[in-house]
Amino acid sequence: MSQGQERFLNYSQLLSELVDGRGRTLNDTTVAFLYQLFPNDLFVKAFSLLETHNLFLYVWDSIDDVALNDGVQCSDAEIDETSNSVAGSRLPTEGHQCHSKRNSNDNDISRLANMLYDLETRSKTLHRIIVQSVDEEVSKKPIYVDVTAWFCSCNEYTKCFSGMLHNNGDEGYQGMFETYGNETDDNFAKVNSHTHVNSSKVICQHLLAAAILLQTSLKVLKYFTSVKQSVSLFSINNKDDWLKLHLNIVD
Ligand SMILES: [Zn+2]
Q1: Which long-range contacts (CB under 8 A, 24 or more apart) does 13-19 make?
Q2: From ligand 1's centre to the CA of 54, what distance in Å?
Q3: Residue 146 is assigned to a structural domain of this protein
Q4: Where are the annotated segments for Disordered?
Q5: How far is the CA of 205 from the centre of ligand 1 (A)?
Q6: How does pLDDT run across 63-75, given as a tens digit for each residue?
Q7: Residue 57 is part of which domain span?
């Protein structure tokens, strides 16, 4: 993979300051700065997704074989097979108002959020982010975001990505990536241990919203899922439900 250009701004650190130290209120100064940092009202749109109950985060949470085959250790999880499973009716389907608008209970949200930020479990915990299309978008199909691979299924991302590839050739490909001169704790748009995607060039509102949740800090994730409760966080511990979740998105 290309070395790309050097990166200086620690986005994870900066976006972590979206909320105060206790994670209870927004830091208005940081919010105002971030409005300016991202182009084309991207931060406004992403922030809107986080505040308007349109983003759903599903976490595979089971000692069942899918997790075990992937090496997941659900060490701190008291698995309860009877609760918090996502029923079929709450899974996204094209053209429907999908999902329950309520989260799991507070303890469960906290435990799931911890799994997504725990150094031992975060890279092994399967998760899926789905964004419900809003009215002004042409397609009513739910949008699938894979923040780990820095991928989004929306048209905005596809245009952005193909534009970089086709308009600039090899130079465009190299321009997609950034590296740090030194070791960094910046996880924002990170695709491997040495490489970050150039998030000023390859990004969309859904990826930015997802990265704010999963690539900043635990207090930010808990702010939107537990304090403000504007992002729904569900556990899935049933393979059929997990497959339905995929089948509804992948044609
Ligand atoms: Zn997108």
Answers
A1: 13/185, 13/186, 15/188, 15/211, 15/212, 15/215, 15/216, 15/220, 16/216, 16/217, 16/219, 16/220, 18/212, 18/216, 18/220, 18/223, 19/219, 19/220, 19/223
A2: 13
A3: yes
A4: 83-105
A5: 6
A6: 654 444 444 333 3
A7: 8-81+99-247
